[in-house]
Amino acid sequence: MIGRRGKQHYCLPSLFLRPGTRMSPPCLTGFAAALILVAVLSWTSIQNYRVFFGMYHDDGIYLVSAQSLAEGSGYRMLFLPGEPAQTKYPIGFSFLLSLIWRAFPSFPDNLTALEIGQVVIAVALPLVAATYLIATRRVTPALGLVIFAISALNRRQLDFAPMLMSDLPCALLSVLALWRTEIVAKRPFNLVSAALLGLIFGAVATIRMQGLLTVATCLIYLCLLRRFRQAGISLVVSASVIAPQMIWSACARSQVPQLLSFYVGYISSGGEPPPTPAEWWSLFSGAKKWFYLILIRTFFPFLSQLPLPQTELQIACCSIVCLFFMALIWVGLWGDLRRSAILSIFWLMYGSHLFFYPVYVEWRHILPSIWLAYYFYFRGWRLIARGLKPRWRALRRPYQSICAASAILFSGYLLAGTAIEAWQKAGRYEQVRSERVPLFSPQVSGADYAQSFAWIKANTKLSDTFICNNEPILFLYTGRKALFPVQIDHWSIIKQTLPPLISVDQAIGFGRVKYIMVDPLFRGLGHMLSPADALVISWSSQYPGSITPVFVSSHGLVRIFAVDQSKLAARLPANHDRDR
Prior knowledge:
The chain is mainly alpha-helical. Among the domains are: 55-107, no CATH class; 167-260, no CATH class; 277-387, no CATH class; 442-569, no CATH class. It has helices spanning 25-49, 58-70, 91-103, 111-135, 141-152, 155-160, 167-185, 191-207, 211-224, 228-253, 261-264, 277-299, 312-337, 342-356, 363-366, 370-387, 393-425, 442-459, 471-478, 490-495, 504-511, 531-542, 565-569, and strands spanning 10-11, 22-23, 465-468, 481-483, 513-518, 547-552, 559-563. The protein has a five-stranded mixed beta sheet, with helices on both faces. The protein has a two-stranded antiparallel sheet with strand order 1-2. α4 packs antiparallel against α5 (141-152) and α5 (141-152) packs across α16 (370-387). The longest helix has 33 residues, at 393-425. The N and C termini lie far apart (70 Å).
């Protein structure tokens, strides 16, 4: 399309953009260059992450659920005894993975295709978000390019990109939902547009439960603008998508034994009492200190390389930087909130969810909204600069020059620093390992797991049940079902205490366990954290002769023990029901 001055411009997708929104060729060139660099670094992450697949545990559960859908077994957790229905995670993300599984059904050969699909979504998130900001005239194309580049090239983002988790797909659909809501709100009522918006809402919540925050944000925004008919139609349509699965999940969840309650719902009971008020405050305070620390180590290049603060002076300096960073975001948020803007409402909904929940946040909780944090950060700087504008006209031009130079220098630091840090560290998963266990490098980990899975397939039956720390991965590689060595409890996760070990009654009566596989809960920590190891020690001392070692991998990373059910069963009550 030709602009007014005869220069050639290129229109962005008309489904979301208002007519006349254009980007210049230099800006498009910058986006293309950033995309190329992101693609190169993402390929490194794809290649290196394969050996660490399953480290989140959730990614393995998602993939087994996708396999169940692809093979026509329903939405079930095939890796658990009894194959209970998957009622914890909405079906949307597993369904997307199942489409790739259908095209590439051979595991683990299909991991590359699955990770590429996830990386495409991860790259599309900051790209669509930056386009959204530019199209709604919240930022200039140049600033939109900066926000896209520093978000997409963030080394944590590149590390997380290939992981089969629902965070980024949900975030991408959330951006589209926010964008489409603004368009629907500014146009005359149209039944089809409102219904289409409701379908987008349903898709967001079907990918991840946190999508309900996006739905609530959009409905609140429509009501604030008195678009009640649009809000009502979209609510009805989205409810028709979301409600059936929620009803099905509630019905199916009631049929699952308590031992598996963690797998089928977010509120699980393993006997751990809830925290006392004093414990709540202690947990909340500690979580917030980590929350602020992880924010600055995520958003600002090279700060993540500094050691964690230990002394009071270091903690104080870190707190000052955190408060300054958060203050700028809140200034930008307040400026946006005065106009009842949808992004400020969404930030309050999503941010309050992270801030008030007394759990230590992870990188993956922050990355979906990193583009929005940068937007409010730059907006806060702009509002402060406008408020400090000198009254004397003679000083205004020098002041504007200083502000412009500061903005360029700071953007240059973010761009250059993010790119350099990404080039040096993105996708280098060998740095995950602890310095106290340098033996277990990714190569060692991959080789030991390959030996272990080969031994299991050659020396055990397909019907044998295991206890291990990574039961979805065991099933994907060997087809054997497994139980987790502890009964995971919701309160124990919050209080960061070790849940009770699985009992002999549960292992024999319900799972009919024949083997225990001792492997790292997190690959990089080796044996430093392994509930299965604690279970072996406990049963060996309580029931001598019931646990026998049968396999040790070359580097000792994985060990397998045979369980003598007869010696354990002798310890059970006489009226014990083995089929329970």
